[in-house]
Design brief:
The chain is an all-alpha fold and 214 residues long. It has one domain. Helices cover 79% and strands 0% of the residues. α1 packs across α4 and α2 packs across α3. The chain starts with a helix and ends in an 8-residue tail after the last helix.
C-alpha cells in the first residue's frame, strides 16, 4: 500500500510540474513543443481548450499505439492524458491569466524555465512506473513493433506531430526546436537525481538497501 502511494505521489507531482512547464513554453510566444503547438493550433481553429485537445489527442494516440503494437489499448494512459489536460488548462487559466511575458528577455526566460520544469516533471513521473503519456507511448509502440531504436522512434513520432502542428497553424518557432533538442538531455540530467531520491525514500520507508535497484 505504501509503495502504491509513493508511486501515485511521484506520478501526480511529476505531471503537476510537467504541465506547468508545458504551459510556460506555450505562453512564452517563442514556440511550444510539437504536440503542444498542435493542440494550440486546434484550439485556434476549432475552439475548446488546449487541455481538452490534449485529452482528445491522447485518446486517439492510445488507439493508434494499440493498433501499431497489435495489442489492447492502454486505457490508463487515457487517465494520464486527462490529468495532463486538466493541468495545462489549470496553469493557463490561473497563473498565465495574471501575467504573461511581454519582452524578448522575459519570453526567453519563461521558455527556458518551462523547458527545465518540463524535463524535471517528466523525470519525476517516469519514476512512478505508471502509465505513459500517450505521445511517449507512440515512441514505445514504434520501438516494439518495428524495432526502431528509442531515439529514432522518438524522432519519427516527433516529426509526425510537428507536421500536423504546422498544418494546424500552431505556434511553431525557435522555441519548438529548442524544446525538441534539449528536453531529452534535461530529462536525463534530472533522472539520475530523482532515481537517487527515490532509492533514499525506499530505504527509509521499506528498508531497501540504498543501492537497491527496486
Amino acid at each position: 500500500m505504501k509503495k502504491t502511494l509513493e508511486n501515485i505521489s511521484f506520478y501526480l507531482v511529476g505531471l503537476f510540474i510537467m504541465t506547468l512547464g508545458i504551459s510556460a513554453t506555450i505562453v512564452s510566444g517563442l514556440g511550444a513543443s510539437p504536440l503542444d503547438a498542435l493542440n494550440v493550433g486546434l484550439t485556434d481553429h476549432f475552439g475548446l481548450t488546449v487541455g481538452s485537445w490534449e485529452f482528445i489527442g491522447g485518446i486517439i494516440l492510445v488507439f493508434i499505439n494499440a493498433f501499431v503494437q497489435k495489442d489492447k489499448p492502454s486505457y490508463f494512459s487515457i487517465v494520464t492524458a486527462l490529468i495532463t489536460g486538466i493541468g495545462i488548462d489549470f496553469w493557463l487559466f490561473t497563473l498565465w491569466q495574471v501575467w504573461e511575458p511581454a519582452t524578448l528577455p522575459m519570453m526567453t526566460t519563461v521558455l527556458l524555465s518551462g523547458l527545465i520544469l518540463l524535463g524535471l516533471g517528466i523525470s519525476i513521473y517516469l519514476h512512478s512506473n505508471m502509465a505513459l503519456i500517450p505521445v511517449d507511448g507512440l515512441m514505445i509502440a514504434l520501438h516494439k513493433r518495428f524495432g526502431f531504436r528509442l531515439a529514432i522512434a522518438k524522432t519519427l513520432a516527433g516529426t509526425f506531430i510537428l507536421i500536423l502542428a504546422l498544418i494546424a497553424g500552431g505556434p511553431v518557432g525557435i522555441g519548438t526546436f529548442i524544446v525538441v533538442l534539449l528536453v531529452g538531455p534535461i530529462i536525463g540530467f534530472f533522472y539520475k537525481y530523482i532515481e537517487r531520491l527515490k532509492k533514499k525514500i525506499d530505504h527509509l520507508i521499506y528498508k531497501y538497501p540504498a543501492d537497491s535497484k527496486i
